[in-house]
Amino acid sequence: MKDPELLYLIGGVVAVLVIASLITETLCRKREPTPTLINLRQRVRAWWWMMLVFGSSLALGRTGVFGFYTLLSFLALREFLTLSPTPRGDHRTLALVFFIVLPLHYLFAWAPWYGMFLIWIPVYSFVFIPIRSALGGDTDRFLERTARIQWGVLTCIYFLSYLPMLLYLPIPGYEGQNAKLLFFVVLVTQISDVMQYVFGKLFGKHPIAPSVSPSKTREGLIFGGLAATGIGTALWWATPFHPGAAAAMSALLVLAGFLGGLVMSAVKRSLGAKDWGRGIPGHGGVLDRLDSLLFAAPLFFHVCGYYLSTDMNEAHGRFEVFDNILHLWQ
Q1: Using a CB cutoff of 8 Å and minimum separation of 24, what contacts does 63-68 make?
Q2: Fewest CB within 10 angstroms: 4, 206, 281, 284, which?
Q3: Cβ atoms 293, 259 nearer than 8 A
């Protein structure tokens, strides 16, 4: 939070929220509010709270950021698993996931133990989960139940954890500024969601997958995506990219965010639900707000690392890992 450019970014978002609040409140007072306008006002008010929480986590430093995303993963996974009843035989498996797999994964990320961060969930945890369920003795729909838990762990914990891991990317000439890169990813992805929603409401006529998400239209994706890409390109000065690379990275975030949201909507529909929860007025649940980040975060992390020729294994060796864990213990 001592980085002036990061403060400029936060100030810009606050200014946009102030303008959006004034517009929505004025429209609601001057005319009979429509359901769309009421939903828009709820969304703007919710964004104030989300911005406050996100900014507070940045103010607390790396540990605050990792703690914040640990909580988000917990809430997102809880919403995911709540939509589908879990038989008694899987209760101990869920305890393993929530109280061992999740905290250990974020501990490896915070340390940072990059090698273990990469394989803890897709290798070790994916082995432990079916073993624990098999020991429960319930074979009814065993594969379906196990795959559902594994998918929830992969998306809500593993994919989401790539966002705070951006703080550890070793970027020459950009040391100590990685919080801006995290802010860039979240900002572009979320603005893309907002722009697609707005343009879809104004001009949307051709749904892309009507049975999955009727509100996602070609017009919303194209015009909203172009607007978000333009905003991301204009913020190149806050990133380690030149304008052309910032445009390409923004387009990647737009596409990955759209596809992530579409896939999670398909999962939602298969479970017979419209929203993942009701925790955020106007948005649904926590996972409804995070779905576009689930695919965008890991893709951006690895593409960015490849483009900038970073080496996480070399930058964050095992000795640093144990030093950080020892410091935490002390």
Answers
A1: 63/110, 65/164, 65/167, 65/179, 65/182, 66/106, 66/109, 66/110, 66/164, 68/164
A2: 4
A3: no
Q: What per-residue confidence (pLDDT) applies to 328?
A: 59
* Number of C-beta neighbours around residue 88 at 10 A: 8
Alpha carbon 97 to its chain centroid, in Å, reads: 19
Unique residue bearing structure tokens 């994964």: 105
Two tokens at 310?
């970073």
Predicted confidence at residue 261, as pLDDT, reads: 92
Separation between Cα atoms, residue 316 and residue 230, nearest integer Å: 34
Can you tell me the distance from the alpha carbon of 265 to that of 225, in angstroms, rounded to the nearest whole number?
A: 19
Structure tokens at 76: 């997102």
Q: What percent of the chain has pLDDT over 90?
A: 53
How many Cβ atoms sit within 10 Å of the Cβ of residue 243? 13
Alpha-carbon dihedral 99, 100, 105, 107, rounded to 10 degrees: 80
184 and 238 Cβ atoms separated by less than 8 Å: yes
pLDDT computed for residue 83 by the predictor: 84
- 3-class secondary structure, 272: coil
Q: Exposed, middle or buried by CB within 10 Å (0-12, 13-18, 19+), for 202? A: exposed
Tens of pLDDT, residue by residue over 211-254, are 888 888 999 999 999 999 999 999 999 999 999 999 999 999 99
CB 221 within 8 A of CB 272: no
Q: 284: which strand partners?
A: 280
Output the furthest CA–CA distance in the chain (Å, rounded): 63
Q: Which residue has the tokens 């605050």?
A: 64
208: DSSP letter: S
**Angle, helices 142-153/61-82, rounded to nearest 10 degrees:** 150
pTM of the model: 0.89
Task: Report residue 57's pLDDT band, with 50, 70 and 90 as the boundaries.
Answer: confident
